[in-house]
DNA sequence: TAATAGTTTGATCTTTTGGTCAAAATTAAA
DNA sequence: TTTAATTTTGACCAAAAGATCAAACTATTA
């Protein structure tokens, strides 16, 4: 498909508008305008708003979930996995800044849709299961506390990497955070967060 | 205002629908149905959808931001402040489970609106400024590391307490998390998260 | 109790918005 | 170069959704 073909332009525009305003907030007219084409052409290529949305949904989740899973699949130990996770996951989000708000919104409006998608993408190797194995190994080696739990760990890791992207608009307003300052903050977090999480796993004393 | 007055019923219904579906996803008809009244009555009491939304917006943020601020205003030391924060903040969110998604969405569609609200509510005593003072005290006493930064600390605290509510629908699907199990998770986090954060602040060794 | 003010409703209007369609323009094929 | 297929457009349609209004109903009060 050519770079500036109508399809490409539509998909790009739709991705932008849907991910920013959600399904109900998005307007076909706005997408058409942004793509520089007639509204009818939208329906020519993608029969309906819903079909177009489904395209975007698939596109966005496809470029996100598999990468997300790959990050956790690794043969290194838990500490290394955590280090790599924050670096890769935050980098991934930097390339798709509005994926978090999109997925969180979708999750609230259509939990089943995301769930089905995840079932397909994660199948056997769910992040939760993977973490569980690594944790068991760590405990067996006496490297981490015995009460470490995979769900809590995953929630903490996801919280810390995703939340800044959800609150980015606020950050930008509050502290006069420029785009560059935000980038700096993220780079700093890529290094600090693994330390923070690992410290919390270590046995006391 | 009486408990079951139309106004009350409308506000309750509107709060539910708006916070679940957002402004553009909400339907006046649905609000009317949920309130058990005629759609015209909605317009009789609140001239327009936007006006009604503004009411809800004010109501939701009013019951949230001031409490949020109160939590951080305290004369105890940083560690105590952190402990109290997680307990109170998570409890507050438990009583308003869909506030996080509402505010995050609003933040993305209308950053200025939230910003103005915060400016009014926080005025002089911004949480950021308050944390900064506590951190300085802690550093002066040699209790915490010297490179601790108030923005990062606040982001971490907010991330860890808010994110579970944003991803609750997923949790409920993935691990067959029931409402009770979710509550249990939260109670556990109220105790674990202060430890996690405090550990990350302590000087090495 | 009669009159007035306030409340509630159903019908209806208007605007917004997703969607269709025939015709024009463009590209590909014969 | 003519013909056929494909793409693009503008005009229009229909449904959805917010808003209005006069009439009916209820409560207040003079």
Could you explain how this protein is built, in words?
The structure is a homodimer of 205-residue chains. The first copy, chain A, is mainly alpha-helical. The first copy, chain A, starts with 5 loop residues before the first helix and ends with a helix. In chain A, α1 (6-25) crosses α4 and α7 (99-109) crosses α8. The first copy, chain A, has two domains: 6-52, Homeodomain-like (Arc Repressor Mutant, subunit A, Orthogonal Bundle), CATH 1.10.10; 63-201, Tetracycline Repressor, domain 2. The relative contact order of chain A is 0.10. The mean pLDDT of chain A is 91. Chain A contains twelve helices and no strands. At the A-B interface, α1, α7, α8, α10 and α11 of A face α1, α7, α8, α10 and α11 of B. Chain A binds a DNA duplex (30 and 30 nucleotides) through α3.
Mean pLDDT score of chain A, rounded? 91
CATH class of the largest domain in chain A: Mainly Alpha
The radius of gyration over CA of chain A amounts to: 20 Å
Describe the global form of chain A.
Answer: elongated
- Assembly level: homodimer
CATH architecture of the largest domain in chain A: Orthogonal Bundle
> How far from one another are the termini of chain A?
59 Å
Helices and strands of chain A, in order, run as HHHHHHHHHHHH
| Coarse structural class of chain A | mainly alpha
Number of strands of chain A: 0
Task: Give the helix proportion of chain A (percent range).
Answer: over 70%
- Count every helix of chain A, treating DSSP H or I runs of 4 or more residues as helices: 12
Major interchain interface with per-chain residue totals:
A-B, 45 and 45 residues
Strand content of chain A: under 5%
Give a short account of the largest sheet of chain A: none
How many domains is the backbone of chain A divided into?
A: 2
The low-pLDDT segments of chain A are none
**CATH topology group of the largest domain in chain A:** Tetracycline Repressor, domain 2
């Amino acid at each position: 498909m050519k770079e500036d073909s109508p399809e490409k332009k539509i998909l790009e525009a739709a991705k932008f508008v849907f991910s920013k305003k959600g399904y109900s907030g998005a307007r076909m007219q706005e997408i058409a305008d942004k793509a520089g084409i007639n509204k009818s052409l939208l329906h020519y290529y993608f029969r309906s708003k819903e079909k177009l949305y489904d395209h975007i949904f698939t596109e966005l989740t496809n470029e996100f979930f598999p990468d997300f899973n790959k990050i956790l699949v690794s043969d290194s130990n838990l500490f290394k996995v955590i280090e790599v996770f924050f670096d890769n996951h935050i980098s991934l989000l930097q390339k798709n800044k509005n994926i978090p708000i999109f997925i969180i919104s979708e999750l609230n409006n259509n939990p089943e849709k995301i769930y089905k998608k995840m079932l397909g993408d994660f199948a056997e190797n769910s992040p939760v299961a993977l973490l569980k194995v690594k944790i068991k190994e760590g405990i067996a080696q006496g490297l981490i506390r015995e009460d470490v739990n995979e769900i809590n760990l995953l929630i903490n890791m996801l919280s810390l990497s995703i939340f800044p992207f959800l609150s980015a608009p606020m950050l930008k307003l509050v502290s006069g955070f420029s785009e560059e300052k935000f980038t700096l903050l993220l780079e700093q977090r890529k290094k600090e967060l693994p330390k923070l999480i690992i410290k919390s796993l270590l046995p006391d004393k």
